[in-house]
Write a structure and sequence with these properties.
Layout: H1 4-12, E1 19-24, H2 28-43, E2 48-50, E3 58-62, H3 73-87, E4 93-102, E5 106-112, H4 115-132, E6 145-151, H5 157-167, E7 172-176, E8 178-187, E9 192-202
Antiparallel strand pairs: 1-3, 1-8, 2-6, 4-5, 4-7, 5-6, 8-9
Length: 205
């Protein structure tokens, strides 16, 4: 593992910015057994920054190119309106979460199947693009996942992957019945994401 993700963040995220995102934040009760099963592995890696449980999330959309402080009240209201309308048309769904895998610069939980989640991503991007333009919402976070920790130094991902595989065979079901519009701060020293919640956006029940 290496710090390539941190370097990428520093390139695309000015130090004094926060950015508007849409996140899926898992129900703590649903995800806790899986996170707990991997905790001993995460806490035992000295070049890894585990993401605190309260900040676990899957990224749906990022507004790039404009800091949150420069978004006017009218723009934010328009964004919330478009998002609320878009996600209210998508029926709530479930995902299977796990296993955890060690990648180049993070440890992440897979979310499958991805069809419904990617449909949600597309709808949210269209809604946000109506306010900020399509270029502002081009960022893709790849296959749906929840990151458990980010590398803050170099290390052997193979050793970590073996430890993760041996930790548990558990999978959990997560309910996606809402997403959140949030104002996100990235801490590149701790390699953590934190946010201020702006709105809860329910899916169709």
């Amino acid at each position: 593992m290496d710090t390539s993700m941190v370097e990428q963040l520093r390139r695309r995220w000015p130090e004094d910015w926060t950015k508007l995102h849409v996140y899926f934040c898992p129900d703590p009760v649903e995800i806790a057994p899986l996170v707990d099963a991997y905790r001993s592995v995460l806490d035992g890696v000295d070049f890894l920054s585990p993401q605190p449980d309260e900040w676990l999330h899957a990224t749906v959309m990022v507004v790039d190119g404009v800091p949150a402080r420069e978004v006017s009240e009218r723009q934010r209201a328009d964004l919330e309106h478009h998002l609320r309308q878009a996600v209210s048309e998508i029926p709530a769904f479930t995902l299977t979460c796990g296993p955890a895998t060690a990648g180049r610069s993070s440890i992440a939980l897979d979310l499958v199947p991805d069809r419904d989640f990617l449909r949600l991503v597309d709808r949210v991007k269209v809604a946000a693009g109506a306010v900020f333009g399509r270029e502002a919402v081009r960022y893709s976070n790849g296959r749906p996942h929840i990151t458990l920790g980010y590398a803050r130094g170099d290390g052997d991902s193979g050793i970590i992957q073996t430890a993760l595989r041996n930790a548990t065979d558990l999978r959990v079901t997560l309910t996606v019945d809402e997403v959140r519009l949030v104002d996100v701060l990235v801490d590149t020293e701790r390699v953590q994401f934190r946010w201020r919640e702006l709105a809860v956006l329910p899916l169709k029940s």
